[in-house]
User: What shape does this take?
Amino acid sequence: MPKKHYKDIPPDYAVCQHSDCPRASVCLHQLVYQPLMERNETLRLINPRHCTKDDTCRHFRDAAPVTYARGFTGMQQHMFPGQYQTFMSILKRRFSHNPYYERRRGETALSPSEQKIVLDALRRAGVTEELKFDEYEENFNWYD
Assistant: This one.
């Protein structure tokens, strides 16, 4: 993990002590262990008995950056008013009122799973064309 991303580590992110795991070099829980050890007074530790040290480890978190999206205000321009009302209603039920608008404006980045929720809402609202989010960025997928 590049040093510039050490500042982006969630302060209470759970760490793994298994540096001997074959996937340690690509697992966020192991890669952040040393930086958080140096920076934090206390650490959240994944119970070592629950780490399998193989491909079936349920705590494995891939360190490869993924594409996050920000904002979907531009999508409204490509929808009929009724479609937009349906789209907005679906997402407000899913995210609730304020978080919906934070995501819509781009204040909250959308993980790949949240992008899928938005795109599914488009389809359910009857939008057939391929619409893009306002911006895209690469980031670590800490929790999804």
Summary: The longest strand covers residues 66-70.
